[in-house]
Design goal:
Chain lengths: 272, 459
């Protein structure tokens, strides 16, 4: 457990580990009666044939994932799904001179790790901001510390690092003279919305990773549809990363709550 | 000539009762009923029913065995041509195929071929043994475990090939598993049993493998030693209308709604999957999928209407499904087309705004095309809207595999026998034609199996 309700798991899945790239996700079905839960890949090891996932206790199905002990099996793990991050398909000349800033919030910190590492390993400038409510909820600080040039921590209550939210931290960094050519925000939808607004103000292009509701993850159900640049897109096959400037965040937030009533009912049954 | 025996009616669950459960609607024949029905077959010299069957089941021959009470003999005859008789007996559009061509149908009612096929399949528990023809040396990959893939894999396995089916979802069966509801096709009792029989032929099924993501076709060929590949990935992409309000909460594709209920078993208390049918539900579309979605919503407690822009005559769904839906209390709003979905202040569906239609001139499909009547807009208050407008093939494999070409409508380019534009890769079913029927997909799978056999023999 990384925090009282965030859990890191290393899953043996050789085929997925071989194909996985930063930005992609998996779908995990803990038990026969569970749901197919999309989780962004937080690390992969091709030699060991493993992928790492980080899960937060939210409802009945995430509780079932977290309940698994070391050595146990999930009923199903499928992936990698979605498109890799944009930079994976850029060539060296395009990447050279880029200065990346990652804005990570809560659970979204974990999937930032393979992205920052990928860039850092290739000598691209990467800074990372991790935000959480309080010091004890900051995750992946050690891993990310070694996968970027500068790591900035921030907490809402000021118990560690910058006192305030990640976007305020970014504004301060830019004011201090840090220059960034590209931002990537991964975290709660509301945080990504404000990260986008801040980046717009600062003139930095930004990609966001949308964690929509999904069933199959392969383009079949359409549950994950989002409006991007006025068009309906499926987060599972067209994303999960999109240009933040184009995303209708308010609609995305509303759609995330689509099964709230049903989920609360299930949670009451399973999580005591 | 002896007095004509009328077609033996099949027993069904009371509509009032079944509207509240997911148990199968149709009970099927018992032995006595089946033998009586079988005795109606005239055993034509040139049986038109066989010609009309996409997989050419030797219908008069199996019916003759049923008439004698030899169910296992009948099963063996069917098994020569079909690996999914319990499925086909339930979901094939017999009225336009075998039964539609039955000579008895000219003056009266055709032989109930579908119900007899189902009877045979349901009453033979063990599979029919098929001896291996040769050493299992050559490996063939089949992508997708729906009807096309299962049919192709069965034939190849019977001929001695080493066949592995790759399935993207966590359960095998494709649309038979995620799309067709329990009350038409029971999963454990019928589908699982038939898939087990395919496995008994030596076919391996790997679930949770998305070809094009988890592993590529090239890697299957280059690294895993597969010598031919069959693509039977179906048509899984939902269509939406492109009208305002489609992304409101409470608007679902039929695919999402049915997958939650069928594959993910949302209707069962012991499963965690959430589903939301609301108190009032409108299903847009007139095909079998629309009927399935509407009847599912009804069973989940919603007062359900079908919204279709043409008239009842043009409904593409099977007559039997429309009849069942009506019996169960589904409201049919014909000549009606949605123009907008209206939401409340919280972004949930409140009403479906529609326009009245009338039939105009016939279009290229021969159906009279519906034309809106100006000024006839009205609102239907509803909590949910399910879009059942048809589906399109998934572009993933075409995009991720060199040498494959797509048709204008997104299907894979393949010839009559399933050969694609790339050597060693074959395709069939909805992945090629766009959404069609289970039996046509099976027929295409069998044709491709033949072409694969020829290709591997000469390779």
């Amino acid at each position: 457990m990384l925090t009282p309700n965030i859990c890191k798991m290393v899953v043996s899945a050789p085929r997925i580990a071989k194909a996985a790239l930063p930005g992609q996700f998996l779908i995990v079905l803990a038990n026969e009666e569970g749901e197919r839960i999309p989780l962004t890949i937080s690390d992969y090891n091709r030699e060991a044939g493993t992928v790492t996932i980080v899960t937060q206790l939210i409802g009945a199905s995430s509780a079932a994932i977290i309940a698994k002990e070391e050595g146990e099996f999930f009923r199903d793990v499928v992936g990698p799904l979605g498109n890799p991050s944009e930079f994976v398909n850029m060539d060296e000349s395009q990447l050279k001179g880029q200065r990346y800033i990652f804005i990570a919030g809560g659970l979204g910190t974990a999937p930032v790790y393979p992205q920052a590492k990928w860039l850092h390993d290739r000598g691209i400038a990467v800074d990372v901001i991790i935000g959480a409510r309080t010091k004890d909820l900051l995750i992946y600080t050690e891993e990310l510390g070694s996968a970027c040039d500068n790591l900035f921590l921030c907490t809402d209550d000021g118990s560690a690092g910058f006192h305030g939210v990640g976007t305020a931290c970014l504004e301060q960094l830019v004011a201090e003279g840090h220059e960034y050519t590209k931002a990537v925000a991964i975290g709660p939808m509301i945080m990504m919305k404000f990260a986008t607004l801040t980046c717009k103000k600062l003139g930095i292009p930004i990609d966001v990773s949308l964690n929509m509701l999904m069933v199959d993850g392969t383009g079949m159900c359409g549950a994950c549809r989002v409006t991007v640049a006025g068009k309906t897109r499926f987060a599972c096959v067209d994303g999960p990363e999109f240009n933040g400037y184009d995303v209708d965040f308010d609609e995305a937030m509303r759609r995330l709550g689509q099964y709230k009533a049903e989920e609360a009912e299930e949670k009451a049954k399973y999580v005591k | 000539m002896a007095e004509r025996i009328p077609r033996v009616p099949v027993r069904e669950q009371d509509p009032k009762v079944r509207a509240h459960n997911f148990d199968e609607v149709c009970y099927g024949y018992n032995l006595e009923e089946a033998m009586t029905e079988a005795s109606r077959c005239l055993h034509c010299k040139n049986p038109r029913c066989v010609t009309a069957c996409p997989v050419s089941i030797k219908i008069p021959e199996f019916i003759a065995k049923v008439k004698e009470g030899d169910i296992h003999g009948a099963a063996a005859i069917i098994a020569e041509d079909s690996s999914l008789p319990a499925v086909c007996g339930r979901v094939c559009p017999q009225e336009t195929q075998c039964e539609g061509s039955c000579i008895l149908g000219v003056k009266g009612e055709p032989v109930a071929i579908g119900k007899l096929e189902r009877f045979v399949a349901d009453h033979t528990s063990e599979g029919v043994a098929h001896p291996s023809v040769e050493g299992k040396s050559k490996k063939v990959a089949v992508i997708g475990s729906g009807p096309a893939g299962l049919a192709c894999a069965s034939d190849l396995a019977k001929w001695g090939y080493d066949v592995t089916i790759f399935e993207a979802l966590h359960k095998a069966g494709g649309v038979l598993e995620y799309g067709i509801p329990e009350f038409r096709l029971p999963k454990e009792k019928v589908l699982k049993k038939e898939i087990e029989e395919v496995k008994a032929l030596g076919v391996k099924i790997e679930t949770d493998v998305i070809i094009g993501r988890t592993v590529s076709i090239d890697s299957l060929i280059d690294d895993e030693g597969f010598e031919a590949v069959f693509v039977g990935t179906g048509a899984g992409l939902p269509k939406f209308m492109g009208i305002p309000g489609e992304n409101l909460n409470g608007v679902f594709s039929a695919n999402e709604f049915l997958t939650r209920n069928n594959l993910m078993k949302a209707f069962r208390e012991d499963y965690m999957t959430p589903i939301h049918a609301g108190a009032k539900c409108c299903v847009v579309g007139g095909g079998n999928v629309a009927m399935d979605a509407a009847r599912t919503a009804l069973r989940l407690g919603a007062d359900t209407s079908i919204i279709y822009r043409r008239t009842e005559v043009e409904l593409p769904a099977r007559k039997e499904e429309v009849h069942h839906a009506k019996e169960e209390g589904i409201d049919f709003r014909m000549l009606t087309n949605p123009v907008e979905i209206i939401g409340d202040e919280k972004g949930w569906v409140k009403a479906l705004r529609c326009i009245k239609m009338e039939l105009g001139e016939p279009d290229e499909s021969g159906r009279r095309s519906p034309v809106p009547i100006p000024g006839s807009e009205f609102e239907i208050p509803t909590e949910t809207v399910i879009m059942a407008l048809g589906t399109a093939p998934n572009p993933l494999i075409i995009n991720k595999t060199k040498g494959l070409e797509a048709t204008r409508r997104g299907g894979l380019v393949a010839d009559e026998d399933g050969r694609t534009t790339r050597e060693g890769i074959f395709a069939g079913g909805d992945a090629v034609t766009g959404a069609a029927t289970v039996i046509l997909a099976m027929g295409a799978g069998r044709k491709a199996a033949k072409a694969i056999d020829e290709y591997l023999k000469t390779k």
